[in-house]
Records
---
Amino acid sequence: MRTEDVLAAIATGLWRWDNTSGKVTLDGEAARLLGLPAEPVVLPEVAVRSRFHPVDWNEINAIITLAVAEDTLAEARLRIMDEDGRVLRTVRSRSKPLERRTPDGRVDFELIGTLQEIAEPQPGTTAAHTPITGDWRRSREAFLLDAGRALAEARSTSEVLRVAASLSMPGFNPDGLAVFGVEGDRLSVIGHHGHGPGDEGPFTDMERETDYPAAEVVRTGRAIYLSTPEDYKRRFPAAWPLAQRFGRVSWAFLPLIVAGRTMGAWMAAFKHPVSFSPDERSVLTTVARMLAQALQRAGVAESERELTTGLQRSMMPQLGPEVPGMTIAARYVPTGGGLQVGGDWYDMIPLPSGRFALVIGDVQGHDVRAAGLMGQLRIAVRAYASEGHRPDAVLSRASRFLAGLCSSQEREEDAGQDGGPRFATCLYVECDPETGMLEVARAGHPDPAVRMTDGTVLMRPTAGGLPLGIIPDTDYPTTRFVLEPGETMMLCTDGLIETGGHDHDTGWARLRAILETEPPEPAGGDASGGAGSAHLERMADLLVQAVHGPSSHHTTGPLVDRREDDIAVVLLCREGSDCGCGTTAAHPARLARRTMLTVAQAEPGRIAGARRQIRELLHDWADDDQVDSAVLMVSEMVTNVLVHTDGDALLVAEAAGDLGTRRLRVEVADGSDELPHKRQPGEMASSGRGVLLMEMLADDWGVDPRGEGKSIWFELHERSKPDADALD
């Protein structure tokens, strides 16, 4: 007995559906099950599709898509209908989607499977009612909910058009879409789908009086439904030659109306006949309303983005002319959501002395007023700096300017309307490109960070004052240090550090990992700044990506916009023969890393900063116990200077040598001639153990008298951490 006879005996037919060519091959039994003559036949997709219930067709598309994705069988129940729309029978389809690549490189699939007739449950039986036999109304409501959500989430015109093209309408999916916009007395195509490049040419610029369905829809505000080519040709004979070449057989043109104003028209074209029943017209009308509202929202949002982007760009200056021996890179990223404007800024200012200044700041808030204050404050700082004032004087004048500006604005506005006066943090760095000398004044802003030539990154503590605008007359102390050849300094706002659920410490650790692990720059970089500039730009990009990427956030789940705060970052690299900007590979001779810090009598709190500096300097030291010993001795030495003298303590620490055999030397200098001496403190004494600690913990230590004052120093020689097993 032949296989075909066996399958026919159990009412099972075979079919092959070629999605590429749009042809369906049926054997005799499959043709009979579809209500066709019982003989093998090859039919176009449209002819077979018309035999399925519209709801079932819509659902089987999703089932096949899932089977393709999961490489499984696609199984569904389908209702077969006759030409009058009556259900003939229900069949079960089991098929295997096979992916294949078309000659043009597109991935498509072929469906091979069976159709088998099944008996429908009789009234009064307990057979389950499968979801595939759901009614049209339920399917329509589900589609409209999905379409409304997708269109509401689209944030640009292009996204709205992509969503409209992907909508899968229940039972009558259009294969050609076009959206016409109105500008004055003319219509133009603002987006289309299902057409080739250049097909929109004849429709890109039409007068409203043109004899074309979309133009009539815009003129009258009423939809036009053309069920057959004859309807199209009869009503719009002049436009028919243009529409005929696309091979469509049904068209719907609907007005896009928002707040009583017709803003355009939407065309949905079909390659299969559509009668446009009341239910189908209801679905199309609802989609047109949602599409019009989505396009209106997207247009407003795009206008706001264009306005705010232009505002922000006008306020963000380009970095100035190239500075010999220096490479500079900068980034600014506004906060996500709202108008995407904020109060962060950076600037590079040429000075009358031949030096230049780098400024970075953050005005409180992310709104239009913050952006306006930022622009005014930036101009004021630039004006004061251009007059030749020192860094401390620039910030003092800027603080007075901002306080007066906020005070005058508050008097002009209604009380409580704008949330009170604003303040701003700022970091002002005056740079000497010849010597690398930096003079830093800080107003409540995060400290700068320096990447040394061997890849070590340290936060550079600087003296600072209150944020600008809080107290009009405020002093801002100045800190001086040298940026050595090959070192890179980073200035940033708190948005780069604390975005993503981080506090200052964890955020700084995240940035430090990026700065220290950046891939090395190829040897022999261009001294003129070509390769070095490209590397610095890449480093700036990596810092921003580290904040906005998934790893920066404190929760898991779908990706969202993580621009919680504005971000501004400036990188300054002093070029050198062994430029360490991005260099992490070991040098034949390890370069020394050093740090320097002044602890004033009036700032005992900076002792904690000194301890942190030593830990960061020794972050890769082999023995943690030695690091703890160094921190303890530094704390003791600096505290003794503040307690037993009237001057400030100058801390200088240097680590030199190859990894595993390095030598740490720490010096603390002061202006007193009194030398330390060994004492025998009692058990309950609170002091007198400094020299004892040095003898116990340091490999070597001593006191060097100077012309004015003295320097106390100690050395530690790096050793491997003791093996735990060896101590047992």
---
Amino acid sequence: MTIRSPYVSPDDLYLFNQGQLLRAYRSFGAHPCELDGQGGTAFAVWAPNALEVRVAGEFNGWDGTNHPLTPAGTTGVWTGFAADVGEGALYKYELIDAEGRKRLKADPFAFQSELRPGTASVVARLDGYEWRDEHWMQHKQQHPPYERPMLIYEVHLGSWRLEAPEQFRTYAQLADELVDYVCSIGYTHIELLPLTEHPLDRSWGYQATGYYSATSRYGTPEGLKLLVDRCHQRGIGVLLDWVPGHFCKDDHGLRLFDGTPLYEDSDPRRAEKPNWGTLAFHFGKPEVQSFLLSNALFWLDVYHIDGFRVDAVASMIDLHFDKPDGMRTWNRHGGTEHLEALNFLRRLNETVFGHYPDSLMMAEDSSAWPGVTSPTYKGGLGFNYKWNMGWMNDMLRYMGTDPADRPACHTLTTFPMMYAYSENYILPLSHDEVVHGKRSLLHKMPGTYEEKFANLRLFYGYWFCFPGKKLLFMGGEYGQFDEWKDDAGLDWMLLDYPLHAAMNRYMHRMSEVYASLPPLWELDHSPEGFRWIDPDNAEQSVLSFVRYSREEGRHVVAICNFSGRAYSDFRIGVPAAPAYRVLINSDVAEYGGRTTAAWPLVKTERTKRNGQPVSLTLNVPPLAFILLEPLRSAGRQRKMNQ
């Protein structure tokens, strides 16, 4: 990409102060350039309450006296040119606050940062990389996601593979290893935990200091571009976990940037996030809106990111979220809704979709706020997807229940259908559910060692077939047994153990079947794509339903036996078809189960059942998922066998 002139124009200053400068990174920050034929770097920073602003760095012994910036009128912006500062230089802003105290601050618009524990910003260029993802960028514009398969692999780059503590894979290495792996397991997207620069490894990027700086833990900005480019060349979309709700309090960061609450609210009751030890952005301040809206476009412009998982939306829109009584405030109408945050989120989605209509904007929202994925012109927040936290909580509670006790909580499996089409949903099995003592997905399952695997295979089958797009955290595909160890890496040696290897084969087959069957994703957001066969068989803990595609007659039947009992000659009603083929039986030996004999085609009988015109009988193993497809052409069957 091409960077404009680094000097902030009067128009830019006006738009920045109005909250309308949508690509502020092109002017603000540090830009290597030439002035009157002399090379150097131009700087621009917002610090309206500072008495002086200078640039300090290695080039001047961290004493900014000889590198002052000049205020741009009354806009609060300071600018200047340093002839002796070039690309790669470490720097900070040296600010003198209203009380005469000196503060050294990292650049809020820095494009690169010093490797921690260093906290300086780095002068860096954004241009020069030659992208090779033209086909992907054109393809995604022509294929909206709603009627396409979406299977997202959520990744923490620092612990996906780790040879030893802090020996991280680089972006360039991951461009080979991670991309090859995700292609091999059949996922359509990668979602990266936050890459904004952050001081503490174990915050996973959720407490940031450098919103425009891809973390230096894994290499350079060019390396990250290579990683995204390789993903796109292999047909994989890249989503970024983005945190506009709050930022960390480290002294070199945004807190009290010019000696006063600047990016945060001046009212500590609104600014403080006491449970997280962070500060909320002041969403009503125009300059903060310019900063955050520009940051969203920055990742789309510069790094070709395909969209965002917007973190902690519930904490943004509720003034009382996790606040003790003494810290609660109300809006101007006397309510608890954070009106400025709601306005920001609507502007965010309007801005992103206005410039990148094919983006994915996913709200991680645990609230019951209506219309999260409705258009803003209809009063919605304007996202196109929302994480279905209700489904996730209900199903993990149910699956953690002993099978003998599941009849009493059977409705946990069916209630999510009551609201399945109220939003466009992602079904998340994310990092948050396998850390901090919550145990891994496999370890949540009840029963013996073998039964844990059977339960998890069953749960995954249900997950693949339930309406909504899919997200799985790394390691879940082979049954990581310990919960996520963010400082030690995944336990890849488990693939040497038979049941883990079998789980991996099962998930690979499930992803293949999922991608090949339009009934499992084409009508994810339409009630016409789903019909219960029998949702009420709590006594036997058997759930059955049909998924349909747009093609007339095209459907699959899912049967989930959540009990520990086998059922012989189990009769189930199905849509009219002469016979059904068993596409998946989670209990076969290949996947770690006990069924050894191959299953033939299952013929239907003209016996009505469950409101269906015909029915069939089959043996249903305990803790098993079965997926049936009506018999189709021989060509189709050959394809499914491949």
---
Amino acid sequence: MRLSESPRSIWARRTTHAAIAGALVLALATTPSADAGRTAFPSDPGLTSYPTDALGRPLISNTGQAYLDPRLPVRSRVQDLLGRMTLEEKVGQMTQAERGAVSDDPTLVTAWRLGSVLSGGGSVPTPNTPQAWADMVDRFQAAALRTRLQIPLLYGVDSVHGHGNLLGATVFPHNIGLGSTRDPRLVERIEHVVAEETRATGPQWAFAPCVCVARDTRWGRTYESFAEDPGLVTRFASAIEGFQGTRLTDVDRVLATAKHYAGDGDTEFDTAAGDYTIDQGVTVTNRHDFARIDLAPYQAAVRRHDAGTVMPSFSSVDWTEDGIGNPVKMHANRELVTDVLKGRLGFDGFVISDWEGIHQIPGDWPTQVRTGVNAGIDMFMEPFSALQFETTLLDEVRAGRVSQARLDDAVRRILAKKFELGLFEKPYTDRTHLAKVGSAEHRALAREAVAKSQVLLKNTGGLLPLRKDAKVYVAGRNADDMGNQAGGWTLSWQGASGQHRLPGNTILDGIRQVAPDAQVTYSKDGSAPTAGSDIAVVVVGETPYAEGFGDVGGPEWAFDPEDGGVPREAKSLDLQAVDQTVIDKVCGAIAKCVVLVVSGRPQVIPPAQLSTIDALVASWLPGSQGEGVADVLFGQRPFTGKLSHTWPRSADQEPINIGDRDYDPLYRFGWGLRTAVSR
């Protein structure tokens, strides 16, 4: 986005397909002509036809080209292919468009020689099924294989807590909960499942994991961070192993993305542009602290775990060594992208920009394009401006403002990953694991992760675990709402409230499933009679959001069709009034009270209210398997989680992090009570 834009206009462009002039499309698009199972493309110089498979899709025509010889080293194949490419073909490989820009006319993939296509949040085929996803990706792949050199397409998607765009995929806890498990091996297993569900449906590339270090929980992306402590985040960088495995050619693995490089969780409040307060703001720091806090997880991601791609942050860095007031956007930061990431850290994958990330670079459009390329970005996420990007980059290269060497470096990196993924040998979706999407086995792993992510903050008198035959009064708006417990990046960019938003079990469902002998009364607002109940379980917390729309003090949002034009609640570290009311009502009426906080960050609970709560649990955003919460409530599994982020006493303590000089939170980083398993 451009700096003058508000987040509302950004959102409109993120979800509205750009109009493409019909005359321009006709001028650029190649028109295939059928010829007994072969397809002719007279607009491709020197190429007359391609063989097709039984479905009529073009196959790669191997007539002895070295780059199509799988026996050769990847480096040799890349060099051979690069030597055959025109300038236009190289620029095409550096360009990524959104599916919405090409879905009505996949020949644009061919005409623009696109290297990649992505699905943004909520950008899905109709119907939104595993089969339809695979068909869609293969349709775009077929278009890519109609180009002169038949370079396969990479398809990327935000599989940040599961293949969240896909209805029926397994939705895991967000990273803030996974960090609380203190179990990197568990997270590797999770990301392996996410990779399997993602690749089985077509995409070969996940824009995950986020290895940001969230230092201020007012940030709307706090839940995407494993921890506030760089050492713990560094341990969880092993999530990359779960995505990529040891061989990217395996049909249950995908290319991973370490994001957002670097410092996005360390920006200062009120430094963001537009209506945001902290997201996409400025990290004001010195080089030593930046390396210690913000850069450390990327060193592990690159050197230890061989991340295939890295995505720069929307944020800026302002070095204190040369005085405050001259921040540099990460997408324009040659020092950090080229000198540090590619140079000192030895990153040999490719750098993918964030959504229109170069649009925030100061200057006119040609300046933004050449600055981003020269900074070291290799592929550009230009969802609805792909053609404009290609045209401008071509002009910049021809004018000598971007070198051929820089272009060749970018394309080498991109092609290498395509060869490593085996796309030249098997370009179309391998659907072997399609039936495993959302399978019982995968949901069992999600349930385990939910249970291990729960953090028991308070347990007066050993109230938890509960008896399985207890008389339980369940209340609160997050007790029976799948949308709220899944959070953002679920079926849409921002996510949405709704009990039946996705398959799975709510926390209320889980209570009934895990404790079938319990006498359960449910009342969302606590208005049902409480007489006869001996335990209250009140489930409160946040409603969904993503990115800057989750910033405390940030913009309210009413553009999702599910919102009916009603703005979402203002984001706050304090419990919402509706939550405080139901706690007061229910905990005041029932002798023993358990409060579960379902949220993407700690929520401040006033001391007077905390005194009425016997047991307090940080449930985070558990995803589709709410029965994992019930497992620890009733002693099916023990509480073992530990806080991945400090729980403040009040909102004005933020930013507060372990190691601060005056560190006096309500619950410390690493806090978590344990319970035994009930027999």
